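Bumping with the actual sequence this time:
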Amino acid sequence: MIFVETPEVSHVERQGWVSMGIGAGLALVASALPQLRFIFGYLTILVHEMGHALTAWLFGYPAIPTFDFTYGGGITLQGARVWPLLLLPLGLLAWMGWQHRANPRARWAWTIVGVSFTLLAISPAHRHLMVLMGHGTELVIATVFIYRALSGSAIKLAAERPLYAACGLFIVFESLRFGYGLMTSEELRYMYEQAKGGGHWMDFSQLAGEFVIRVKTIATLFFLAALTVPGVAWLLFRYREMIGTKIVSTLGAES
């Protein structure tokens, strides 16, 4: 068993770039071969549906992520809102504010987060977020995976780094493929908007209807967001010490 220490440097060392190169190669192969793409695609589906489900629970809607074995992909089964469930995130925010009550900056920070969450929860915007966080969670998880490959953060086995890179970049490649297809192909947009044989609202179709814009426009924005993922992961690594110091100074004890 090979253990790898987390690097303390602000630049990506050789092992990080090697891991990214190996991961990129694996991700390209998995994305190019239909059989491997089908298998690895379940990673993206799982992340996507978990994003919907976790966001739904956060705002008080019981939800269960499932695979769709009829039409392919996945679907999140969501129930009616249970208002008492909102006491959990609100209680956690209140507890965090109380824990940091000695620090004025932290107290204000948690107050702002709590008020923002409350306003979001009682407005229709939380429903838009629940829809958005399917594809949104894909990009978040891809960023985390690529960050881990670059930094070696929380890595125990050397083989984990290229695997993180492969999984993160596979999600990025599939997101780019998906976004580009909806951007450029009227046929693919038509198939997408058929919504698995009817009776369902696809995420981008639902957002397009709610904001009165075209699916093509949303697909373009998603494509551009996916393009930024590797760069965002690198920036998080490059400035991690500064970000960590800022968080500690805000949430730490009052000096």
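The tokens above came from a reply further down the thread. Residues 1-9 have pLDDT under 50 and may be disordered.
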